[in-house]
Amino acid sequence: xxxxxxxxxxxxxxxxxxxxxxxxxxxxxxxxxxxxxxxxxxxxxxxxxxxxxxxxxxxxxxxxxxxxxxxxxxxxxxxxxxxxxxxxxxxxxxxxxxxxxxxxxxxxxxxxxxxxxxxxxxxxxxxxxxxxxxxxxxxxxxxxxxxxxxxxxxxxxxxxxxxxxxxxxxxxxxxxxxxxxxxxxxxxxxxxxxxxxxxxxxxxxxxxxxxxxxxxxxxxxxxxxxxxxxxxxxxxxxxxxxxxxxxxxxxxxxxxxxxxxxxxxxxxxxxxxxxxxxxxxxxxxxxxxxxxxxxxxxxxxxxxxxxxxxxxxxxxxxxxxxxxxxxxxxxxxxxxxxxxxxxxxxxxxxxxxxxxxxxxxxxxxxxxxxxxxxxxxxxxxxxxxxxxxxxxxxxxxxxxxxxxxxxxxxxxxxxxxxxxxxxxxxxxxxxxxxxxxxxxxxxxxxxxxxxxxxxxxxxxxxxxxxxxxxxxxxxxxxxxxxxxxxxxxxxxxxxxxxxxxxxxxxxxxxxxxxxxxxxxxxxxxxxxxxxxxxxxxxxxxxxxxxxxxxxxxxxxxxxxxxxxxxxxxxxxxxxxxxxxxxxxxxxxxxxxxxxxxxxxxxxxxxxxxxx
Length: 611
What we know:
By secondary structure, the protein is α/β, with parallel strands linked by helices. The chain folds into three domains: 32-162, Nuclear Transport Factor 2, Chain: A (Roll); 182-331 and 535-559 and 566-601, FAD/NAD(P)-binding domain (3-Layer(bba) Sandwich), CATH 3.50.50; 341-529, FAD/NAD(P)-binding domain. The strands form six sheets. It has a six-stranded mixed sheet, with helices on both faces. Strands 9-8-7-13-25 form a five-stranded parallel sheet, covered by helices on one side. It has a five-stranded parallel sheet with strand order 14-24-15-16-20, with helices on one face. Helix 7 runs parallel beside helix 20 (583-601). The chain is globular. This is FAD/NAD(P)-binding domain-containing protein.
């Protein structure tokens, strides 16, 4: 678990003594030889790998991996997201699945030696193969052993396409000219007057748009219903200072990357415009100002979905699949209940209701929370000369985007591999291993940010270095928040331009502010809660029947294997799906979700290999 660190120097001192969990050269008892023939090593390993698979020699395959090696599969062998760690688990998985899936036609692709750290090196190889129903890709990482034999530390297999059902892009796009018919055709396509879509998508943010585009290009009719009057309003009307802290190369959307002139960190209002443009350019079917009011599953698996339009009319759809694209928490703000709220004579609001610091010039503001939204809003207040205090309830992970992002997202940076390659490289590492590597980058980032962190420590700001000192990315996988990727507010805290309080918890509101458990008080005209959102399952259960809701598994956080729970695949109820995540997750996993729906529609979806 994340714990409060006394100071950055003590963290860095203790970090130097941590024993590596990764297959370092020292741990393996080897060194890299200067005459290493990378291509030959990879080719010989891959030849044995493909031969053993062709002959169903499971012990032979397992023997090509380290005893504590990993195999991560996304759909192609399991119709699930599964991670198998250790020879026994890998062997059981292969014995169960190879006879069913029948992988074949293995072809080795590009190979390279990668050395992310001086003591850590592996040969990375890409490969392609097929199953009876799918076209697939894979990635392996080979490390040297003391015997001189190179073995796989990780193997990754991923479903790319379905045989006979390619995406309608590139050479598969429509080559026929359209003279004077396009406008009418689009109006008819969007209206769904005498027909129902196969898939109804609830929510028109990036997750809904991405999966709609994927489904469209697989030939699956779909309709997005969006409660807002414009696409992008989820970003357009958040607080004015909101800006993405992920770099542009990490955030591209399917089929249509951002232009090369796009800023590295996208302002929220600019992203809102892009989402609207994307929906139009990709010709997605969207009903705006439309709210889903009732979702019921019929016998046989189909769904009845009632929606209410802006004019008050109701339309009832009968669809094969429902995709909940509601985002983290479904946009439902989490507001703590604090005694005495009715006594407070000032304004209480959630960060989702906040517009601009200009709204509160001349007032005293207390922000409850100390993660991204709280810092963004506090920094905006400080720049406008507003008296603002950040109330920190618990410790926060801090890194600067300047020092952190090039290290955390080095596969997604200017001059690195194309995004589709970076996606496969990133996902080819099991999440638990990503966490181990993140421990390395967290140390490097803390060293680079040392002066700022020491300044925060001096003013009493409580910080930590992530779950097991692994930085922010694992926190995103497990809780979706709890960190701030600094773009300037931390220095304002150090300089006293943003005041800080964290010596006790809130006891109650008073008429003029907040009283704390240690007896201290803060005067406030405005108390702003930057306290995040409700869980994703809360939003779903508001729409589905109690019977359906009781069958749903948990959403987000990790399974014991280290896979994300509930998103992008089986949710516990047939043909009910949940699409969520940041822009990168939505880009990559929207195809996984669309391929599952397409496979079901075409009758080729196999049996899930569930834990």
